[in-house]
């Protein structure tokens, strides 16, 4: 990990928010938050902002209004977060489906630096097992759903200019890899 002065120099060069993308369970929020602490930037989680705006939990939104309605809200919320953080360093974590939405992805690619955090299926399955807040997994086999989403969303995620593995090791490894990748990207 670079020293504090080097991190400050990196932050000073960031003229766009960093947006974390990738599948459920990969660690976008945890790693994104730690990244923002290292870079000393604001952090915002798009899923949390969707919940705040709708005043409903994500399972409740899916239940009552369906996935398309959730995607519309998610698209608007991410557009607002990107606008609010335009031209400045910040870290925004998104929900796993956000970058698979054509409009949201185009906006992120245009106005932010997308970081695709990826992991193998075993790691994802182990990580999602700990939480029961994901409607796409409720009552289904997480390995099957995640495997299918990995295939379907892979081409979208692959458009991110930065890709970083988030393996089973400590999350700080992921943060250090993103920092190194950002150094290269901005060089
Ligand atoms: C979703 C991922 C979730 C949340 C919603 C839908 C998806 O976010 O946005 O349940 O379509 O992959 P996380 O990736 O933070 O779990």
From TrEMBL:
It is found in: Cytoplasm. It comes from Croceicoccus marinus. HAMAP family: Shikimate_kinase (MF_00109). Substrate binds at residues 47, 71, 96, 153. Its EC number is 2.7.1.71. GO terms for biological process: amino acid biosynthetic process; aromatic amino acid family biosynthetic process; chorismate biosynthetic process. Its cofactor is Mg(2+). NCBIfam families: PRK13946.1 (NF010552). It comes from the Bacteria. Pathway: Metabolic intermediate biosynthesis; chorismate biosynthesis; chorismate from D-erythrose 4-phosphate and phosphoenolpyruvate: step 5/7. One of its GO terms (cellular component) is cytosol. Monomer. Catalyzes the specific phosphorylation of the 3-hydroxyl group of shikimic acid using ATP as a cosubstrate. It catalyses: shikimate + ATP = 3-phosphoshikimate + ADP + H(+). The lineage of its organism: Bacteria, Pseudomonadati, Pseudomonadota, Alphaproteobacteria, Sphingomonadales. Belongs to the shikimate kinase family. Keywords: Amino-acid biosynthesis, Aromatic amino acid biosynthesis, ATP-binding, Cytoplasm, Kinase, Magnesium, Metal-binding, Nucleotide-binding, Transferase. ATP binds at residues 25-30, 134. Its main location: cytoplasm. Binds 1 Mg(2+) ion per subunit. Pfam families: SKI. Mg(2+) binds at residue 29. One of its GO terms (molecular function) is ATP binding. This is Shikimate kinase. Gene3D superfamilies: P-loop containing nucleotide triphosphate hydrolases. The gene is aroK.
């Amino acid at each position: 990990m670079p020293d504090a002065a080097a991190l400050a120099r990196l932050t000073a060069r960031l003229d766009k928010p960093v947006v974390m993308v990738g599948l459920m369970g990969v660690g976008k929020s945890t790693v994104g938050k730690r990244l923002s602490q290292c870079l000393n930037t604001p952090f915002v989680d798009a899923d949390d902002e969707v919940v705040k705006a709708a005043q409903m939990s994500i399972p409740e939104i899916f239940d009552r209004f369906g996935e398309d309605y959730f995607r519309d809200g998610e698209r608007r919320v991410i557009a607002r977060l990107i606008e609010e953080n335009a031209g400045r360093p910040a870290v925004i974590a998104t929900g796993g489906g956000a970058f698979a939405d054509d409009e949201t992805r185009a906006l992120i690619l245009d106005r932010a630096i997308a970081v695709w955090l990826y992991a193998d299926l075993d790691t994802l399955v182990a990580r999602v097992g700990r939480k029961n807040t994901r409607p796409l997994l409720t009552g289904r086999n997480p390995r099957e759903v995640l495997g299918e989403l990995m295939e379907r969303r892979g081409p979208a995620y692959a458009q991110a200019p930065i890709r970083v593995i988030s393996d089973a090791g400590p999350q700080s490894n992921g943060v250090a890899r993103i920092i190194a990748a950002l150094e290269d990207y901005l060089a």
